[in-house]
Specification:
With 169 residues, the chain is an all-alpha fold. It has one domain. The chain is 78% helix and 0% strand. It is built from six helices and no strands. The chain is globular, with a radius of gyration of 16 Å.
Length: 169
């Protein structure tokens, strides 16, 4: 079951990366909302390291490969973001959806504050205006319950497919 969940979340990482980085009309809503960060926070809050680690590392390598940032910048950021979500989820009770929204907001705003310095580290650092960072973090936090539900439902769907296959065999 863990292998199927790990593969499912790897597929989700690729789909969200393609939607967010492409010029599709649907992706304009995702330009301000970082769905990849929501996926990493979801994995940190709701799954074990065995399921989440391949997706976190793959997402980071994907972003590092296509971003043009300093090598390893997204690897460092994504691993730090995942670790904060994972250990924060273990320390605090974040089962209630409102607490998860607040956690996504706090982690996303910290991600958006750290990213300009790490991405442009060898160059002249450029900082994002505060109003845009705050607005985008609010939009990411607002979209998180919908994506959390989508991830939960897809996981339930895959588990039902696997249990149906085991019942027939």
């Amino acid at each position: 079951m863990r292998t199927a969940n790990a593969i499912l979340f790897l597929v989700w990482a690729v789909v969200l990366f393609v939607i967010q980085s492409s010029g599709l009309g649907i992706s304009t809503a995702f330009r301000t909302c970082d769905a990849g960060v929501i996926l990493l926070i979801y994995l940190g809050l709701c799954h074990s390291l065995l399921v989440a680690a391949p997706t976190v590392l793959f997402s980071a390598m994907l972003m590092d490969s296509f971003s043009g940032a300093a090598p390893g910048a997204f690897l460092l950021l994504y691993c730090a973001l995942f670790a904060l979500a994972y250990f924060g989820g273990k320390k605090m009770d974040l089962r209630f959806w409102l607490y998860r929204i607040v956690a996504v907001f706090i982690l996303d705003i910290s991600f958006r504050v750290l990213i300009p310095g790490l991405v442009s580290f060898p160059y002249d650092p450029v900082f994002v205006p505060e109003a845009r960072t705050f607005r985008n973090s609010v939009l990411t936090a607002a979209a998180s319950p919908l994506l959390f539900l989508l991830f939960d439902r897809s996981e339930t769907w895959v588990e039902s497919l696997i249990s149906d296959q085991r019942g027939q065999g």
